[in-house]
Amino acid sequence: VEEHSLDRDCTTLSRHILQQLHSFNAEAQDLSAIMNRIALAAKIISRRLSRAGLMEGALGFTGNINVQGESVKKMDIYANDVFISVFKQSGLVCRLASEEMEKPYYIPENCPIGRYTLIYDPIDGSSNIDINLNIGSIFSIRKQEGDDIDGDARDLLQNGHKQIAAGYILYGPSTMLVYSIGTGVHSFTLDPSLGEFILSNENIKVPTHGPIYSVNEGNFWQWEDSIRDYIRYVHRHEGYTARYSGALVGDFHRILHQGGVFIYPGTVKKPEGKLRLLYESAPLAFLMEQAGGRASNGNMELMDVVPDALHARTPLIIGSKEDVALVESFIQDRA
Ligand code: AHM
Ligand code: MG
């Protein structure tokens, strides 16, 4: 027993990444170093969140409106800055693009050596921050293509297959980090006493069908008929249960383990839905496919969607294969 628990404590995120890489070329080393920095960001954000309710001025709004037209919270900015800080002087990441920044942020001392771009949503589920409910961070890593001399980062406007790694951090009762570098999906739990992420589940596979449907039904009046048809179907059949937390990362995490589908369709007010392709939908699509599930925008595979702007939005249907296909069949029926 003693030996077993020691082995467990030693299966840290950094060791795991090296095991997954199977090689020691330059890219493998870069990727492992990048993931270690992300893990540090996760620890710093997690530390602040666990005390935010006790700290003067950690919670609440900044009074500013971001590029999305949403009110910015202090934790959004804090978390955004943490990701920038951990990559300073790393020589790894030259550009960072996030929900909270209109344009990519360049770390001059890392350019042009840093050939990678980190695209992230520093706090996903911002409405949960001030009430101490689960929130997350989402990240995606892409290789910079071309020189980006104009600083317009046009090479980021490509499909989800360009991601070389993706993952999220879930700040819940414990802090978890879930990642994929294209070799399955693996989850880690932060042991605060060790300050390390320790392996929880390797090669997570999503069930092909599950009971969860996760959607903001308050938008029912704003949906197209096809989505209403699907929800009516669910209401009339046994075996479904609704779960919607207001934080995509949490809802996704549940579906990853229990199966089912998360849907954020287009609405009257937001025809492309709410979620952003590059730092919300595409990274989670990468993970869901790696776990044996699917992601779609209703008409095509989500991984094939090419954004026309850094902050482009897309409808999202993601989860178990059969459940995603069922939603799509209602869309096809109305097409
Ligand atoms: P955020 O990154 O600004 O918090 O927005 C994304 C969040 C998702 O986590 C969540 O699924 C969705 O927005 C909830 O939106 P709504 O309140 O419209 O249902
Ligand atoms: Mg956000």
UniProtKB/TrEMBL annotation:
GO MF terms listed in the record are: fructose 1,6-bisphosphate 1-phosphatase activity; magnesium ion binding
**Binding positions for Mg(2+) 1 per the UniProt entry:** 99, 121, 123
Sorted alphabetically, which HAMAP family does this protein's record hold? FBPase_class1
Ranges that cross the membrane: none
What's the protein called, per UniProt? Fructose-1,6-bisphosphatase class 1
Give the keywords, sorted.
Calvin cycle, Carbohydrate metabolism, Cytoplasm, Hydrolase, Magnesium, Metal-binding
Report the catalytic activity.
beta-D-fructose 1,6-bisphosphate + H2O = beta-D-fructose 6-phosphate + phosphate
List each copy of the Fructose-1-6-bisphosphatase class I N-terminal domain by range: 12-202
Q: In which pathway does it act?
A: Carbohydrate biosynthesis; Calvin cycle
Which residues hold Mg(2+) 2? 121, 124, 280
Q: Which Gene3D superfamilies match?
A: 3.40.190.80, Fructose-1,6-Bisphosphatase, subunit A, domain 1 (3.30.540.10)
Superkingdom, natural source: Bacteria
Which residue intervals define the domain Fructose-1-6-bisphosphatase class 1 C-terminal in the entry? 206-331
Q: Its Gene Ontology biological processes? A: fructose 1,6-bisphosphate metabolic process; fructose 6-phosphate metabolic process; fructose metabolic process; gluconeogenesis; reductive pentose-phosphate cycle; sucrose biosynthetic process
Protein family membership: Belongs to the FBPase class 1 family.
The record's note on quaternary structure and interaction partners says: Homotetramer.
Show the PANTHER family listed in the entry. Answer: FRUCTOSE-1,6-BISPHOSPHATASE-RELATED, SEDOHEPTULOSE-1,7-BISPHOSPHATASE, CHLOROPLASTIC
Report any Pfam family annotated for this entry: FBPase
